[in-house]
Amino acid sequence: MWVLVFFDLPTDTKRDRKNAAAFRQKLLKDGFSMFQFSIYLRHCPSRENADVHIKRVKLNLPPDGHVAVMVITDKQFGMMELYYGKKSKELPQVSQQLSMF
């Protein structure tokens, strides 16, 4: 499973910029990777694990702005086509993680 977090946060004031930066840092600390400036993603081995990370995103929501969370399967993620300019690029490698219960 892949958890994608999309956001559009205000950056008009110093406080807004601080809140936006803190939200990004919390995503990184929770194991998300920046896909684009306002899109972060994280691979999760199961739906239960994805739910844990979604709950953390919800706990760290900034006071203003729009945040969306989407969960997609590995197969759906694998069908994504990435382009940098006109050149196709490979999808990022999934790190192999060992989950212990």
Automatic annotation (TrEMBL):
Keyword Hydrolase: yes
Coiled-coil spans in chain: none
Cofactor: Mg(2+)
Binding, Mg(2+): D8
E.C. number: 3.1.-.-
Enzyme class: hydrolase
Lineage: superkingdom: Bacteria
Keywords assigned by UniProt, alphabetized: Antiviral defense, Endonuclease, Hydrolase, Magnesium, Metal-binding, Nuclease
Signal peptide boundaries: none
A GO term for molecular function: endonuclease activity
SUPFAM superfamilies: TTP0101/SSO1404-like (SSF143430)
Pfam families in UniProt: CRISPR_Cas2
Homology family: Belongs to the CRISPR-associated endoribonuclease Cas2 protein family.
HAMAP family attached to this UniProt entry: Cas2
Subunit structure: Homodimer, forms a heterotetramer with a Cas1 homodimer.
Role: CRISPR (clustered regularly interspaced short palindromic repeat), is an adaptive immune system that provides protection against mobile genetic elements (viruses, transposable elements and conjugative plasmids). CRISPR clusters contain sequences complementary to antecedent mobile elements and target invading nucleic acids. CRISPR clusters are transcribed and processed into CRISPR RNA (crRNA). Functions as a ssRNA-specific endoribonuclease. Involved in the integration of spacer DNA into the CRISPR cassette.
Name listed for the protein in its UniProt record: CRISPR-associated endoribonuclease Cas2
Species for this entry: Reichenbachiella agarivorans
Gene: cas2
